[in-house]
Every structure is written in structure tokens, then in C-alpha cells.
Design goal:
241 residues; mainly alpha; 81% helix; 0% strand
Length: 241
């Protein structure tokens, strides 16, 4: 765990040193704040003490921001050759993958933590469902962890950051949009399968305050697959030719 944390701190420092973290946090707070309080189906338009407006916009903003964060995690190291230098140190491939995953997830958690004033403000405006708010944040963290694992995998198979970004978006589109569309166009077992594969099905359930084991298993399974795949690619690329 100590080595994972050392790698995570190194990556987190890299995010802030390159200004990527500041840009992502400011953009995230700007988008989420604008659509939560000022435009569209905002809190005042809905007329309820609820953060569903925020969760709805964060659901989309994180989908686009996370590939931008993960695209350089391994692709840049592969391109520059620093991954080979890193692996000469007493660390395993798993520790490298988990360290980079942890750093990116921590950055997302920091961004979400900065939206706590939204929660405090709405709670002062009316009788808010505290359980639904907590569940909503849990849903965003699980969804973010899932897309980070996918982005880490796409970054591991390319030396080009843009390719990693586009691949992460392409794969994410299936979970975020395409499976949901297919579920609405099929019935029976096929429709149920596509519905289960859709992120919205599980996120909406959790954000309403219903934390079901099948939703947790869904997110943890994809996270596990993404991390295992990243480790496998990293292990293969480090083998002597």
C-alpha cells in the first residue's frame, strides 16, 4: 500500500504541476454550477430541495473530463520511455496501475468535495433528502472510478495521448449512451441485457437513494476488468523482446 500511495502522490503532483488539475476543477465547477443554479432544469426551476440537477449535469461533465485526465497516465510514459525506468524500481505492475488509478480518483473526489457548498445551500433552502444526496455522490464516485479504469486501459495500449482519449470516449459511449438506446429498442432478454450494461440504469438507481447490490457489483466488475486489462498490457509491454 505504501508504494501505491507514493505513486499516487507522484501522479497527483503531476496533475497540479501541469495545471491539468486546476483546469479540470475550475471547468467542472463552472459547468456544474451554471447548470445547477442558473440554466435549464436548475434547482430553482425544479422548485425542490434536491441536488438531482447537479447529479444530472455531473453525470455528463465527468464522462467527458475523465478521458482527458487519463489519456496521459500511461500513454505519455510509453512514448517517453519513462515507464521502463519506473518499472526498474522495486514496484509491481499492479502497484503502478493502482497508484495511477488512485491519483485520478482522488482528483475527482477533490472536485466533488468542492461542491459540498451546493449541498449546504440547498439544505438551508428546504427539507433535503440527505440519504439521496449521499447516494448521489457515491454514484458519481463509482461511475468515475469505472471510467478511470477504462481510460487507464486505453492509455496503456497507445503511445499517443489523443488516441487514448478518443478510445476512452469511444468505449465510454457504449456504456453512457449506446446501450441505453439499444435497451429502448429491444425487448425480452436482449433488451434486459443492454439495460443492465447501461450506466444510466445503475447511476439513476443509486442517485435516487437506492443502493442495490447489483448496481455495486456492476461498477466494481467493470472497474476490475479495466484494471486487470491495464495490468496485463503493462506486463506484456515490459517483457523483453
Amino acid at each position: 500500500m505504501k508504494k501505491i500511495w507514493i505513486i499516487a502522490k507522484r501522479e497527483l503532483n503531476t496533475f497540479f504541476d501541469s495545471l491539468m488539475a486546476y483546469i479540470m476543477i475550475i471547468a467542472f465547477l463552472g459547468f456544474s454550477g451554471f447548470f445547477t443554479w442558473l440554466y435549464g432544469a436548475d434547482i430553482f426551476f425544479v422548485g425542490q430541495a434536491s441536488l438531482q440537477s447537479f447529479f444530472s449535469i455531473a453525470y455528463w461533465t465527468l464522462f467527458f473530463f475523465i478521458p482527458a485526465l487519463t489519456m496521459r497516465l500511461l500513454a505519455e510514459e510509453n512514448r517517453s520511455g519513462t515507464i521502463e525506468l519506473l518499472l526498474t524500481k522495486p514496484v509491481t505492475h499492479w502497484q503502478v496501475v493502482l497508484g495511477k488509478f488512485t491519483a485520478t480518483l482522488l482528483l475527482i473526489v477533490i472536485a466533488l468535495a468542492l461542491t459540498i457548498p451546493y449541498y449546504i445551500t440547498v439544505a438551508n433552502l428546504g427539507d433535503i433528502d440527505h440519504g439521496a444526496v449521499i447516494s448521489g455522490y457515491i454514484g458519481l464516485i463509482l461511475m468515475s472510478a469505472m471510467y478511470i479504469s477504462i481510460g487507464l486501459f486505453t492509455s496503456s495500449i497507445s503511445n499517443n495521448q489523443i488516441v487514448g482519449f478518443l478510445l476512452a470516449l469511444f468505449i465510454g459511449m457504449f456504456f453512457h449512451i449506446i446501450f441505453d438506446v439499444l435497451a429502448n429498442n429491444f425487448t425480452g432478454l436482449i433488451g434486459q441485457t443492454f439495460d443492465f450494461l447501461s450506466v444510466s440504469t445503475h447511476f439513476e438507481s443509486i442517485s435516487r437513494g437506492v443502493i442495490d447490490s447489483k448496481d455495486i457489483i456492476y461498477f466494481l466488475s467493470i472497474i476490475f476488468i479495466g484494471l486487470v486489462s491495464s495490468e496485463a498490457v503493462l506486463s506484456k509491454s515490459s517483457l523483453p523482446e
